[in-house]
Design brief:
The structure holds two protein chains of two kinds. Chain A is mainly alpha-helical. Helix content of chain A is 70%, strand content 0%. Chain B has one domain: SGNH hydrolase (Rossmann fold, 3-Layer(aba) Sandwich), CATH 3.40.50. A five-stranded parallel beta sheet of chain B has the order 2-1-3-4-5, with helices on both faces. In chain B, helix 4 packs across helix 13 and helix 5 packs parallel to helix 11. In chain B, 41% of the residues are buried. Classes of the chains: A mainly alpha, B alpha/beta. At the A-B interface, helix 1, helix 10, helix 11, helix 20 and helix 21 of A face helix 1, helix 7, helix 8 and helix 9 of B.
Chain lengths: 525, 384
């Protein structure tokens, strides 16, 4: 169910009044959870099993973690009763699963083996009564899900190619052959988002940053909250769980704010992203047939397409949540006005970049170990961030390019000349151009195609481009608005007639010239 | 005595920033936006109709390019003068292979001795299930007047044509068929497409937008129009302003029709031979049921309905199947009679006057009109 479709409108026509009607009763949270599961199950009800499993396991792991001594605490003399029960239960379950994995039906054996390992680890965690084991299980489980559903085929393909090149008769099995019979091997929508959100809760609890959530219902709602389930923002437990602990009062301002955000998001998606995608798709599907101007303009268009698509989704998600009184994190801050790559990542997909900062970059040592260590940490963080986006070498190259860009602009900013003398607009133009070149790898089907496009951009024939003037004018208008917003002209944009006029124009454009549907790009991640 | 204190309420977490634009509208702003939108949505189509004049001549037919512009079809039906009889049907009425002055309505008008006595209200590409939708949702003008309906048996010649097969089919004018899940088994649109079709037919503004797209932007949305590429490498609209495209000119009739067109030739000229058809029985036929409901709708609106069954190209039916075909044709006539609906079943035209299984050539239409006019029941109905 996409935000910009009629089924979602109907869904909201039921979910929102139901939420308002129940907000003074204890039923509002179950209602929200039921709505979220319905929303997610709309794509494929089987995916729900994965969300429920991931949610239930992380809730249980934190519960058991809570029965273990915290860091620095002495272990109690007598073993915790819950952990004793857990040890018995997990031990028995692991033994039973191991029998099934050895002697059970052959098609189920890989699945049973995976569960034997997981439950065996849980028995070990109960035996050792060590929080680190529970944290490890949570990380192992979430990353295993991601690895299996998102990267297994990519890894198997590359390993098998390497083995084949070495003349080895060995080969990794296709991951589809490891799923239970009758199950289709598909990438569950939004898996990267809900696993990261759930994982952040266990890490934060382990680090003592967040209290244990005692209600499974509330925790499940946090993991599966429908506005941000598919493509973020990736929320933290400390931001969302307190909001789910108290009913949200009805405030008309929330409704009007939510509608404002939703309209802007809808315009970004339907009027801009989908329009740009028509041109980008034409050029990128057959780049060899286009000259330099088209390749340059299509890359420029893709930079804006992905911004409008993703930030439009986020605006709509924040708008829907706001209508119910919930505040989601800001995820974009006009990234194409950034003056450095570091600045860009404080403006682009903020919830993801702060996730990687908090859970990858800082644990690696952050900037505490000197310049070389800092740059190594930045490099690793951006590489992982790139790979998070998809199972393709192009995403790894994209991540590396951003790591190099961040390090380079960081160094440049240290030079007084660059810091003080280079005009801000020139820095912004440079950052935008660099980001555009990196987007080529993000959008291309594979690395050779990306290189072909890059060559074509600078050395292709100079033919008349087919980029429509209307499209460029719309993008130009938005860019001017963003620059004005970050300048002294901002009060002019806040004038009521300007706001009303722009909102009416956006709504009319949507009604008259919408470019049709299409799923959000970030759903595939 | 110790004093008990209620625990201090937890401080509210700081509210994240609203966004990175100034598009934060309060209630009164939304009211202003709604007023502006409602004014535009309500007034624009009305004012547009005044600006974009529509004066169909006696042989007018809806251009092929506007077949899916149902708002235009509504205007066409509205514009049928009181003394004219609308002829409603699919491409047989519209005239697939002939020019507008070679269609059934033209020759019927000639027989009647009055240009425009019969108005061509056929739409290319429709079928009984779509005609039902057209009449129900856009045919309000078909009320308390005579109406001539053509029943094309081609739509019952196979489960695929009847749309009653379970296998998914893609077909024209899907927005006109019943959108209920299961109503048309081979129609597998998702809920969003079905809801969209219902909303589009219910809200006039969307019909107007579709009209603009169909008529001025090559049946595409404005963004798609700016990206049109008729031949590889040519982008005629990339830098064209949309304003001048609103020229008010109606799309030209398709030139590939009429006696001078290479398509205008007897069905046997291309090596055609008799075929077997998988006729669908009337009790099982979705198209027949839709046709019957259309007749009922028109009669409920006070219309005096006459049905012409055929003229199907019987020469194209394999000899051993002709009895089945005739039984079906007679069954249609019988059921119409049972329902009290006037009908006429013209005999098949000479083979050389057909272009395919159901469409006559120009001379075929002329002959059909002559036969209909000579039919006492038809003549009496048309002249009373």
């Amino acid at each position: 169910m996409l935000f910009h479709t009629l089924p979602f409108l109907l869904f909201m026509a039921v979910a929102l009044p139901g939420f308002y009607a129940l907000r003074r009763t204890p039923l509002w949270a179950p209602w929200l959870l039921a709505a979220s599961y319905f929303f997610y199950g709309w794509w494929n009800p089987w995916y729900l099993l994965l969300v429920v499993y991931s949610t239930g396991l992380d809730f249980l792991l934190v519960l058991l973690m809570d029965h273990c001594p915290a860091r620095g605490e002495a272990a109690p003399e007598r073993r915790d009763r819950t952990l004793r029960w857990a040890l018995a239960a997990f031990g028995a379950a692991a033994a039973a699963l191991a029998v099934g994995a050895v002697a059970g039906p052959a098609p189920l054996r890989p699945t049973l083996l995976a569960f034997t390992a997981l439950v065996g680890l849980m028995a070990l965690g109960a035996a050792l009564a060590d929080r680190r084991v529970w944290l490890f299980i949570s990380l192992f489980n979430n990353l295993f899900l991601l690895l299996f559903f998102k990267y297994a085929r990519f890894v198997a393909g590359n390993v098998n190619a390497a083995l084949g090149a070495l003349g080895s008769p060995l080969a990794m099995p296709d991951p589809a052959s490891l799923t239970p019979p009758g199950w289709e091997y598909l990438l569950p929508v939004g898996i990267s988002f809900f696993t990261f959100q759930s994982m952040s809760y266990t890490i934060d609890f382990y680090l003592g940053r967040v209290e244990r959530e005692r209600s499974l219902l509330r925790f499940a709602t946090f993991v599966c909250f429908f506005p941000q389930l598919m493509a973020g923002p990736i929320e933290r437990a400390r931001n969302m769980l307190p909001q789910f602990r108290r009913p949200q009062p009805f405030r008309p301002r929330n409704l009007t704010d939510g509608l404002s955000l939703f309209l802007v998001g809808l315009f970004k998606k339907l009027a801009l992203a989908n329009y740009l995608s028509l041109y980008v798709e034409r050029v990128y599907s057959d780049p060899a047939s286009f000259g330099s101007p088209d390749l340059l303009l299509a890359t420029f268009a893709f930079a804006w397409q992905i911004f409008f698509d993703f930030s439009g989704y986020t605006d709509m998600a924040r708008g829907v949540a706001r209508m119910m009184g919930f505040h989601l994190t800001l995820n974009f801050r006009n990234p194409y006005t950034a003056t450095g790559l570091g600045d860009f990542w404080q403006r682009w997909h903020i919830s993801l970049s702060s996730w990687f900062r908090d859970y990858v970059y800082i644990p690696l040592g952050g900037s505490r170990g000197g310049k070389a260590a800092t740059y190594r940490n930045l490099f690793v963080t951006f590489l992982v961030s790139g790979v998070w986006h998809g199972a393709n070498w192009t995403f790894a190259v994209w991540g590396v390019m951003h790591a190099v860009g961040v390090i380079a602009t960081r160094e440049l900013e240290r030079s007084p000349f660059y810091h003080h003398r280079v005009p801000r607009l020139l820095k912004q133009a440079g950052v935008f151009a660099y980001v555009c070149v990196a987007w080529v790898f993000f959008r291309a089907a594979d690395v050779p195609q990306a290189l072909l496009i890059l060559r074509g951009m600078f050395a292709g024939p100079w033919t008349a481009p087919g980029a429509p003037g209307l499209m460029l004018a719309l993008v130009g208008g938005v860019w001017v608005y963003q620059f004005a917003y970050e300048s002294r002209w901002r009060p002019m944009l806040a004038a009521a007639p300007v706001r009303v006029g722009l909102a009416a124009c956006m709504a009319l454009y949507l009604a008259l010239c919408s470019s049709g549907g299409g799923a959000f790009i970030y759903f595939q991640f | 005595m110790s004093e008990t204190h209620a625990p201090a309420p937890r401080p509210e977490p700081p509210e994240p920033p609203f966004g990175v634009n100034e598009m934060r509208l309060a209630g009164r702003h939304w009211l202003a936006v709604a007023a502006l939108l409602l004014a535009f949505v309500g007034l624009a189509p009305i004012l547009w109709d005044r600006w974009e004049r529509f004066e169909p001549g006696p042989d007018y037919r809806v251009p092929y390019a506007l077949s899916s512009d149902y708002r235009h079809t509504r205007r066409r039906l509205d514009a049928v003068p009181p003394g004219s009889i609308p002829v409603v049907g699919d491409s047989v009425v519209w005239g697939e292979y002939v020019r507008a002055d070679g269609s059934l309505s033209h020759f019927l008008s000639r027989e009647a001795g009055r240009p425009g006595r019969f108005a061509n209200c056929g739409i290319d590409g429709v079928f009984p299930l779509a005609i039902e939708g057209l009449v129900t949702h856009y045919g309000g003008a078909l009320r308390s007047r005579k109406a001539l309906l053509q029943c094309n048996m081609l739509w019952m010649s196979s489960p695929q044509s009847d749309l009653s097969s379970e296998k998914e089919e893609t077909f024209n004018h899907a927005a006109l068929v019943p959108q209920r899940f299961g109503a048309v088994p081979c129609y597998r649109a998702d809920a969003a497409a079905r809801l969209g079709a219902v909303v589009a037919r219910s809200v006039g503004f969307f019909g107007w937008v579709s009209h603009l797209n169909s008529r001025y932007f090559d049946q595409a949305s404005l963004p798609q129009w700016t990206l049109s590429e008729p031949t590889p490498g040519s982008h005629p609209n990339a830098w064209r302003l949309p304003g001048p495209a609103l020229s008010l000119d109606e799309p030209a009739s398709d030139p590939r029709r009429g006696p001078s067109s290479p398509r205008h030739k007897p069905w046997t000229a291309g090596g055609g031979s008799p075929q077997s058809f998988e006729w669908v029985g009337l009790d099982a036929s979705l198209q027949w049921a839709a046709f019957r409901r259309t007749v009922a709708t028109l009669r409920d609106r006070g219309c005096d309905v006459m049905v012409v069954v055929g003229p199907f190209n019987e020469h194209m039916v394999a000899p051993e199947q002709r009895p089945t075909f005739r039984a079906l044709r007679d069954g249609i006539a019988g059921r119409l009679r049972w329902d009290g609906v006037a009908n006429v079943v013209p005999e098949a035209l000479p083979s050389a006057l057909y272009a395919d299984a159901s469409h006559p050539l120009t001379e075929g239409y002329a002959e059909l009109a002559r036969r209909l006019w000579r039919d006492p029941a038809f003549h009496a109905w048309a002249t009373r």
